[in-house]
Amino acid sequence: MKKQTTTDSLSVVERLSRIGVALSAQQDINRLLELIIDEACGLTAADGGTLYNLSPDGDFLEFAIVYNRSLGVRKGGTGEPIDWPPVRLKQGASGRNMANVSAYAALTGQVVNIPDVYNAAGFDFQGTRDFDARNGYRSRSMLVVPMRDHEGDLIGVLQLLNATDDATGRVMPFSRESQMITESFASQAAVAISQKRLIKSLEELLDAFVKTIALAIDEKSPYTGGHIRRVADLTMSIAERINAAQSGPFAGVRFSDHEMQELRMAAWLHDVGKITTPERIVDKATKLTAVCDRLELIRTRGEVMIRDHELSRRRRVGLPQGVEEEIVRENDDFNRRMTSDMEFLASLNTGAFPVRPEDIARLEAIAVRTWRQDGREQPLLTEDEYRNLAVFRGTLTEDEREIINNHALVTKRLLETLPFPKRLRNIPVYAGSHHEKLDGSGYPQGMREEEMPLQARIIALADIFEALTARDRPYKRANTLSEAVSILRGMARMRHIDPDLFALFMEERIYLDYAVREMAPHLIDMPART
User: Fold this and answer.
1) In 161-294, alpha helices (H)
2) pLDDT confidence bin for 6, thresholds 50/70/90
3) What would you report as the CA-atom Rg of the chain, rounded to the nearest whole angstrom?
4) Among 3.30.870.10, 2.60.40.1180, 3.30.470.30, 3.30.450.40, what is the CATH number of 6-199?
5) What is the pLDDT of residues 272-296, one digit of tens each?
6) Hey, how many other C-beta atoms are within 10 angstroms of the C-beta on 79?
7) Contact call for residues 484 and 468 (beta carbons, < 8 A)
8) In this predicted structure, what is the pLDDT of residue 281?
9) What is the mean pLDDT of residues 67-87?
């Protein structure tokens, strides 16, 4: 190669600057590695090169990219995987593999510039000779540069082969200028690789932390274990089908990789607000559940009433026969009525059916009865017990339901305190809006249709369908698949959920794929995929 002029030097500096910008801008680690080997060969007029990564345990150099322009070889990165065994750094009695040139550069930190590998002393190039023989090639000049990050730690090795004269095409040794350029470039490349790896490791840490928080929330209650994971899986299934849509309302919608990551994380965090919700409410299996199911306390009071009534009857033994028979009949009627009332209260306590006006009337009649405790008259039902048993549907009072509903607002508030990077900035909105409805009747903000992002609508649909099909809730029986779909259809008609999303959910049979994965077989009462 010709001697560099000042103009050439300026051109190299400009090119290195442009390459540095390109390295920083490349987000895909595999494409970054390809860019490094391509630019290194371009800067030095090398015919080929190899890029090695240091293994996580520090014992090997692993092949990342192998490139040879003359032979048309390109492996690694985004292309064909490299199945060659890695280069050992530790070997032999000395414990260091000094015979391999790339290992030597890695272990010593020295740059190795060899004019002709066939005449190089101190290194074993038998593998290179074998490669040449198989491919009709002649490896000659080689430049091996260790790559160190901004902290001086080795991250890999850049190895270039056969510097070629621009004018004649003749293979030449790598010049001193090429070596200096390559050392500078290798430093840039090492920093770029370290940066991408650091970002990737932080993203993986954040993702793992989010899933750990979600697992902890699920573990608070034995009845919601797996809920968040199932909602996240279903959310991403819907998003993937939207991305694949070729027609219909979602034909023009495409979520980028970053948007998919943002949506996935929002789905995993949608219930983070439940971290503040008391377990006694989350796990409220019956209307009277507190520390224990207070139905047993009421049963005990009823047994005391029956006992007291029986004692009163026994004290009246010896009365005229007709009167005594009447007392016995009256006592039997009392016992039957008490037994029936206790069964009625037990059925009310489950919250499995809506409470009718006649049920309230009977409950009021039971509530005013009294029993004696320590010689004092006490109501059979306390005011709080009556209020809980009178709940129209389900097991939660209005106050308890408000506490449950508040988790969506808490979710948004908690997530808004976190410094999410720009590309994840919508997570608080998406996660905190999963109980909103298109008609504005949802909570916590009462969003209208135009205010509710598509991502939040997806999570809302996934959350509702998971709840409808869950078989581990103590306060309700599991719906069959057809019942769950029927409820969703009604919600779409009332614009509680997005009708277009529901249509996609049905047309793409997302509901059925989910059911096969997550539901008990006997609850799947809709036709299998054909």
Assistant:
1) 176-219, 227-244, 257-268, 279-282
2) very low
3) 37
4) 3.30.450.40
5) 888 877 666 666 667 677 766 777 7
6) 13
7) yes
8) 64
9) 92
